Amino acid sequence: MILISACLCGCNCKYNGGNNYNEKIKRLYDEGNAILVCPEEMSGLSTPREPVEIQNGTGFDVLEGRAKVLSAQGTDVTEKFINGANKILDIALKNNVKTAILKAKSPSCGTGKIYDGTFTGTLKEGNGVTAELLKANKIQVLSEEDYI
Fold this sequence. Notes:
5 helices; two-stranded antiparallel sheet; 4-stranded parallel beta sheet; alpha/beta; globular
């Protein structure tokens, strides 16, 4: 069993109410070997919602209490992001998940690169909160860009 970001399969759970549909990943889900997740919705955040980025660090720093997840207007959703990540980890562990395909660059799901917290579209090295927690628990995390 694998985890897939729900937005990649056409679920309208993206911050702006849209999705990030990827036909190849949707086919993988349709084969019946995947669980769709959205850590932001599972944390109780609404859709649509304010766009957010990790300020002063990465998902690792958020989990360690050294960084925050904030909107451009300053709304702090750090605890929601941690809560959502923990819910996804629980699902992964209960279902013996070994791999997750998550949305690139997301403050929750991004792996390898995320937005830098300035809301300018600039990327930095690092993982989102959920991606970081899954990796820390020995679950392979790929983005849709990595899935070939």
